[in-house]
Amino acid sequence: MKPMLTLTEHSQLKALSDPLRAEMMMRLLEKPYTGQQLSEYFNLSRAKIHYHLKELEKNQLISIVKKEEKNGIIQKFYQSVARGFTPSAELLPHLADISETSRQLLLQMAERTKSVILSAPENAFKLNKASENPSEWGYVGSMWQFSAKEEHFKDWIKKYFALMKEFSEITKEDHPSHPDSKIYYISTMAFQIDEPVMDDMKSNKEEE
Q: What residue ranges carry the coiled-coil annotation (predicted)?
């Protein structure tokens, strides 16, 4: 699976802007699924799931990664071709579709994160001792709000992905089967909003 796929066709944007397909992509980012498994998961007919799978496959967003025979029937397992998607410069004239696609994918990420939080083990949120030092915390939960120039926001994004790449390199030998390894789920979102939602920034804005 590629780390990132650059979208070059308008039809790819349209395919991902559909809420159901965006939700299906969240599942297919995690692991391969058959049409039957997705049908059971979403409680939808196989015909409807098959239609949406074909739309995603036609637009080269998913692919068949393996086939298995069960009771004389060949089962096809589909998975996302990449962990993330970004539009090419050629798609910039379709800003409305880019925005809707990004919104749907972020919404599904938020829903998936909520589901993972609810199913996480109790000790995931256990504090062994009170501390103001973040390095001693067993989990991270924080919300931030900044008034920033776009160039500074983009600089932060670049540093964020560099940090995640560094963390990936550090942990690549930490296999889940190792007795000292634990599995951590990281979900991050950052985007522009119209009005501040936190009181401290509201006050600052009113004083200006």
A: none
CA distance 95 to 13: 10
Match 């919104």 to its residue by tokens: 103
Residue 165, token pair as written in the block = 């790449």
Give the count of alpha carbons within 13 A of 40, CB side only: 4
CA pair distance 88, 172, nearest whole angstrom: 30
pLDDT in tens, 9-23: 999 999 999 999 999
Q: Outline where DSSP puts E strands in 8-119.
A: 62-70, 73-80, 85-87
Task: Map out the domains of the chain with their CATH numbers.
Answer: 1-119 (1.10.10.10), 121-208 (no CATH)
For residue 18, what are the contacts with CB-CB under 8 A and spacing of at least 6?
52, 104
**So what's the pLDDT on residue 142?**
87
pTM of the model: 0.77
Q: Using one digit for the tens of pLDDT, what is the confidence trace for 29-43?
A: 999 999 999 999 999
DSSP class of residue 122?
Answer: G
Residue 31 one-letter amino acid: K
The Cα–Cα gap between 120 and 20 comes to 25
Q: How many CA atoms lie within 13 A of 14 on its CB side?
A: 7
79, 28 Cβ separation under 8 angstroms: yes
